[in-house]
């Protein structure tokens, strides 16, 4: 009997110990599950926050790109308008005639004579030849231009190109600024 009691007690202790181990394992498993859920929730929140930040960065990048493209389009449109104005100015210079044209060519020739001394005029129009001859200056050849003249020193070592195209080319930077200021100064405000 004593043996039976001892066996029952060992069995009861073993069962109790097994139940305690199972209970402890169950509690540990629940804690692990709770911690895993908590960690998963935290990681999901962090991933969502990162996603929002990434989306915001992408949005800002796209907005910056759109602004840059809009600026480029605006600059290109302004450039086209400036080019049209320059072409129109060139066209108008080519139409210049009569006393106005004669006064301009005389001024060019006088400035050239001052700078070069004894000189020869290369005309772009027949009218230029007549103006130079009236001023007592020899002419030579012809230059292909919408107007104006080339003034050369008699020995050919120096020349001043006073054709309308050359003057416009030399003054291009100033002309572009003048046109841009005139056309666009109020659009920037």
What's the layout of helices and strands?
Elements: H1 2-95, H2 98-116, E1 119-123, H3 126-134, E2 148-153, E3 159-163, H4 164-170, H5 172-184
Antiparallel strand pairs: 1-2, 2-3
Helix pairs in contact: 1-5, 2-3
Protein architecture, described:
Helix content is 75%, strand content 8%. With 189 residues, it is mainly alpha-helical. The chain folds into two domains: 1-95; 97-185, ATP synthase, E subunit, C-terminal (hypothetical protein PF0899 fold, 2-Layer Sandwich), CATH 3.30.2320.30. Strands 1-2-3 form a three-stranded antiparallel β-sheet. Helix 1 (2-95) crosses helix 5 (172-184) and helix 2 (98-116) packs across helix 3. The longest helix is centred in the N-terminal third of the chain and has 94 residues, at 2-95. The radius of gyration is 47 Å and the shape is rod-shaped. The N and C termini lie far apart (109 Å).
- Which blocks of ≥5 consecutive residues have pLDDT under 50? none
Q: Which class of secondary structure composition applies to the elements?
A: mainly alpha
Write down the overall mean pLDDT. 88
Percent of residues in helices comes to: over 70%
Quickly count the helices: 5
Order of helices and strands: HHEHEEHH
Beta-strand percentage range: 5-15%
Sheet with the most strands, sense and barrel status = 3 strands, antiparallel
Distance between the termini: 109 Å
Radius of gyration: 47 Å
Order of strands, widest sheet = 1-2-3
In one word, what is the shape?
rod-shaped
Number of strands: 3
Instruction: Give the domain tally.
Output: 2
């Amino acid at each position: 009997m004593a043996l039976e009691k001892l066996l029952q007690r060992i069995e009861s202790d073993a069962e109790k110990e097994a139940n305690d181990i199972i209970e402890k394992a169950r509690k540990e498993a629940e804690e692990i599950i709770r911690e895993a859920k908590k960690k998963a929730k935290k990681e999901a929140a962090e991933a969502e926050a990162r996603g929002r930040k990434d989306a915001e960065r992408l949005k800002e990048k796209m907005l910056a790109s759109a602004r840059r493209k809009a600026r480029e389009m605006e600059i290109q449109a302004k450039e086209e308008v400036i080019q049209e104005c320059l072409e129109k100015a060139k066209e108008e210079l080519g139409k210049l005639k009569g006393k106005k044209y004669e006064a301009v060519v005389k001024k060019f020739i006088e400035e050239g004579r001052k700078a070069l001394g004894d000189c020869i005029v290369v005309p772009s129009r027949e009218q230029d030849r007549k103006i130079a001859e009236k001023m007592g200056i020899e002419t030579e050849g012809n230059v292909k231009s919408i107007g104006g003249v080339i003034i050369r020193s008699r020995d050919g070592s120096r020349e001043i190109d006073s054709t309308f195209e050359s003057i416009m080319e030399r003054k291009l930077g100033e002309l572009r600024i003048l046109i841009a200021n005139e056309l666009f100064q109020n659009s920037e405000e």
